[in-house]
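Reviewer 2 asked us to include a model.

Predict the structure of this chain.
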Amino acid sequence: MRIEPRHDAADRKRHVAQEVRRAHALGPAPDPVCCACCPDYRPSVGCHRDCAAAPRRLSSEGERSPVEPRVAPLVFELKRLGVFYPCWSCEGHTDLAGQIRKIPRIWFYSDSVVHTRALAEAIDRLYAARRLSVRWHLVLTYSDAGNPDTTFSLEPEPAAEQPLSGLQGDLRVMADELGRQFWLACDGLAAQAR
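Predicted model (structure tokens):
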């Protein structure tokens, strides 16, 4: 079956190009990334995902409930992109038998479906390049009934059978490489919109 494009395809292409320009205008976010007034930030050193203070500064609950250390670098890098707003994360956990009880995932807000599409493409590129141990994807979700914002979850696909250490290794690969792949995906979308 062939699906006919919408009648306003030219307007949709302009919208995609506009959203890519907006992504470049918003990101990468300037230092300090974790919070606006980071007491640990030193301009001479800069802001980095492996900063010892990052797990506390990325969390709205700071000392009481910092971002878990294995997922903090990717939370930092998603926030650094300037167009995503991480709101919850988990580095993954096993039960006493060593079976995965909670998968690694990051929940975030996004104001643009185009930006989210570019992120999904960036993740697919990493998987296609065999940089990830399993396929990861974005899931549309919500945090609670009282929150009007739509939330997205970056997580491994349900059929992915991998030890937790492999999934946590993927978190590090994405922290290292997802930003570059995101900007390449954005530029690819803009080129297709011409």
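The longest strand covers residues 84-90. The CA atoms of residues 145 and 151 lie 12 Å apart. We have added this to the supplementary material.
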